[in-house]
Design a protein that fits this description.
Radius of gyration: 19 Å
Number of strands: 2
Strand order of the largest sheet: 1-2
Helix content: 55-70%
Mean pLDDT: 92
Order of helices and strands: EHHHHHHHHHHHHHHHHHE
Length: 361
């Protein structure tokens, strides 16, 4: 289908903005690591990594983290964007599910194996080293949670690649299930415990209510990214699986109607997230309260980062010598005070309906 990019309306997000005061230092440390890694073949590669502004991104997720852990989390985000571009969206693996599976599980294994490991592949070697840094900075529970989330991300990407290879557009419920994994939200949020040096108890983290809140935060940010990245991906012919195109294909909406319906659905999920979080926070432990607060920081911070990042604003993803041009409305906020509505009632979608069924805490 022909992709028509429609400007994204303002965002509903009644969550306060926050950013770590040492974000720039975290960026310098992470980029210095990349400059010495095998992944960086020169100034152009380093500029492209820098163009993702991954340290600024994660500094908004974990605004109170310890700097020595914040830069490590940012390091994985830089790696994740590079891997996503080279192995998930483009290249020889991007439409070959079998080849992707073999490569991805080799990458995952390297993350999980402690100690020395020979890796011929540069992305695999870099991830193994990041995994070693994580093991030195955090305990086994935080690391195992991150590893499980990382595996779920790669599995979601494989599903996405399978759809691409067969030319299949998932329906709305399938798409939301896939997007919960393929967008990379699980490992991104799983790093909160590592970055903050906190460990939420299994009883709390594995409760249905906290699982629901985590999934809702992931989905809201993922649907927001669908809008942020559409212009960039349209130039690379990568937008075949996108919430807007799901509505266009399966519901026969115009581009404008599809954008409006997608935003209304997203706003309904955010409203449920805020209500459920308010409901369980008074009974949460201190580590869980910190985690729940940062789930919200991630939703808000993801929007603020995306409105400014060269990855989306610059055609080649590289920041120009002068600061990247930011739309005027982004500079002043690009926000609205009330949620929009959609004809799609999320409580009728099997994959996410349980979030409204008073999950146990």
């Amino acid at each position: 289908m022909t992709d028509t990019v429609v400007d994204t309306p303002p965002f509903y997000c009644p969550i306060e903005s926050a950013v770590h005061p040492e974000a720039e230092q975290a960026e310098r440390r992470a980029l210095a690591w990349f400059a010495g890694s095998g992944l960086c073949r020169g100034d152009t590669d380093l500029a492209r990594y820098a163009g993702s502004r991954s340290a600024d991104f994660y500094a908004r997720f974990a605004p109170n983290a310890d700097l020595d852990r914040l830069w490590l989390a940012a390091l994985w985000v830089y790696w994740g964007f590079a891997f996503d571009d080279a192995r998930c969206d483009e290249g020889t693996f991007a439409d070959d599910p079998a080849a992707f599976a073999t490569m991805a599980f080799s990458v995952q294994h390297a993350l999980e194996v402690p100690g020395p490991l020979h890796c011929a592949d540069l992305y695999t070697a870099a991830l193994h080293e990041i995994g070693e840094l994580f093991r030195a900075a955090a305990g086994p529970v935080q690391n195992r949670r991150f590893q499980h989330a990382h595996r779920a991300w790669l599995t979601g990407v494989q599903w996405q690649i399978g759809n691409r290879a067969t030319g299949r557009m998932p329906d709305l419920d399938e798409y939301l299930t896939m997007r919960l994994h393929s967008a990379g939200g699980e490992p991104t949020y799983a790093m909160l415990e590592i970055a903050n040096g906190l460990e939420v108890s299994d009883r709390e983290m594995d409760s249905p209510a906290v699982r629901a809140l985590t999934e809702m935060a992931i989905l809201v940010a993922s649907l927001d990214n669908d809008h942020h990245s559409r212009t960039r991906e349209a130039t690379r012919h990568q937008t075949e699986q996108n919430i807007v195109n799901v509505f266009r294909v399966h519901h026969h909406y115009s581009p404008r109607q599809a954008v409006d319906e997608a935003i209304g659905l997203r706003d309904a999920v955010l409203e449920r997230f805020l209500a459920l979080r308010d409901q369980i926070t008074p009974r949460a432990s201190t580590p869980l309260r910190h985690y729940l607060t940062d789930l919200g920081h991630g939703i808000r911070g993801n929007i603020e980062w995306a409105l400014r990042v060269p990855r989306y604003l610059a055609p080649d993803g590289i920041a120009p010598a002068a600061p990247a041009r930011v739309p005027a409305q982004a500079a002043v906020g690009h926000w609205i005070d009330a949620p929009r509505t959609s004809r799609q009632d999320p409580r009728r979608l099997p994959s996410i309906a349980w979030w409204w069924n008073d999950p146990v805490f």
